[in-house]
Prior knowledge:
- The protein has a 6-stranded mixed beta sheet with strand order 1-2-10-7-8-9. It has a 4-stranded parallel beta sheet with strand order 5-4-3-6, with helices on both faces.
- By secondary structure, it is α/β, with parallel strands linked by helices.
- The longest helix is centred in the middle third of the chain and has 21 residues, at 127-147.
- Helix 3 (78-90) links the parallel strand 3 and strand 4.
- It has 2 domains: 19-45 and 161-331, Rossmann fold; 50-158, Rossmann fold (3-Layer(aba) Sandwich), CATH 3.40.50.
- The radius of gyration is 19 Å and the shape is globular.
- The chain is 43% helix and 15% strand.
- The chain is built from 11 helices and 10 strands.
- Bound molecules: pyridoxal-5'-phosphate.
Amino acid sequence: xxxxxxxxxxxxxxxxxxxxxxxxxxxxxxxxxxxxxxxxxxxxxxxxxxxxxxxxxxxxxxxxxxxxxxxxxxxxxxxxxxxxxxxxxxxxxxxxxxxxxxxxxxxxxxxxxxxxxxxxxxxxxxxxxxxxxxxxxxxxxxxxxxxxxxxxxxxxxxxxxxxxxxxxxxxxxxxxxxxxxxxxxxxxxxxxxxxxxxxxxxxxxxxxxxxxxxxxxxxxxxxxxxxxxxxxxxxxxxxxxxxxxxxxxxxxxxxxxxxxxxxxxxxxxxxxxxxxxxxxxxxxxxxxxxxxxxxxxxxxxxxxxxxxxxxxxxxxxxxxxxxxxxxxxxxxxxxx
Length: 336
Ligand SMILES: Cc1ncc(COP(=O)(O)O)c(C=O)c1O
């Protein structure tokens, strides 16, 4: 065990979250017993994985005297929605720099609807411009608010940085207790990976707390190489910022990038089938962008690959429910 000194955090999330056994689905699949760490229950509208990171990020922002938050992501970003809601909860102004995905909806839906309801300011950019100019766009908005005399805290994509890493180190500490309470030694911990912060935290946390269980990130965009580099780089920054004595460069960063499908936020029928199956078998809601893509990839690996020969398998449900609503037309339910 490595003695880690956690920095101050805000108490925003409902943690520890439950670890739930999926008996019916596990029987149906005929593989290992699947357990779900219910991080979709970390809050209500601000639920999901981002709130764990933001507890640390926003503590730093408040400590620095910030009154304005700027962050960025896709139009249906769960991270932006969580930041918008938590900003409102803390009395902070929030500005979201959003990447347009496909045609702009006539009626705002899902996460975007909640962003607007929370009073966040939005600026939406065409995908190409966002990809080419994100740092400049963020700087523009930073300058804009600073000129108004505001104290701005800039949060990177997904709050995945040296500070955000603490969120899933905290989750790894919870998992250690969950596994002891359930009397299990899982063969793997599996989760969706999108900006790398959840994986960075779990990778460092499982090492620091001796969980003796590999963490597998199922990529929903970008390659395994990209994520290995991103995770190691965030962990290096984390060690430097908090003076941590843990050799993270030697830790394995396991990423599976074979279940991304057509691209970020675009899911195949298999993923929608998985959403329907898990909802009907267990009453558990997955979303097509993150959790279902990762869950479906995990099931394929149970059937034919890496996760076949183990007794217990743990899936971290990182939330994302609201993203389901903006893709409801893909679920094939309209004729019922
Ligand atoms: C619901 C959900 N699950 C998983 C992820 C991936 O987490 P991370 O960005 O820490 O890789 C995200 C965000 O990217 C998310 O919104």
